[in-house]
Specification:
Number of helices: 2
Strand content: 25-35%
Order of helices and strands: HEEEH
Largest sheet: 3 strands, antiparallel
Number of strands: 3
Oligomer: single chain
Helix content: 10-25%
Distance between the termini: 12 Å
C-alpha cells in the first residue's frame, strides 16, 4: 500500500462521487483496523486541513477493509 498525501481538492473530488447522505467514518491502522467517528474538520495556519478523530466505534469491518484495499 503506497503512502500518499491528499489535497482538499482531491478529497472533495472523491467525496462528490459518494452519496451525500452517507455517514463519514475514519479508518486507522491497516494492520489492526479500527473505525472512528469524525468530530470536526479545521484548517490550521500552516495550510493543512485537519480531520479530528471522534469516538472509537469498534473494529473496521471486512467490507470497509476491502474498499480501502487493506488486506491482512
Amino acid at each position: 500500500m503506497a503512502e500518499m498525501e491528499m489535497t482538499v481538492g482531491e478529497l472533495i473530488e472523491q467525496l462528490e462521487q459518494m452519496d451525500p447522505a452517507a455517514t463519514v467514518r475514519l479508518a486507522t491502522q491497516p494492520q489492526y483496523p479500527f473505525e472512528y467517528s469524525i468530530s470536526r474538520a479545521a484548517e490550521a495556519e500552516d495550510g493543512i486541513c485537519w480531520i479530528g478523530q471522534g469516538e472509537q466505534l469498534g473494529y473496521l469491518g471486512e467490507e470497509a477493509r476491502d474498499a480501502l484495499d487493506w488486506h491482512r
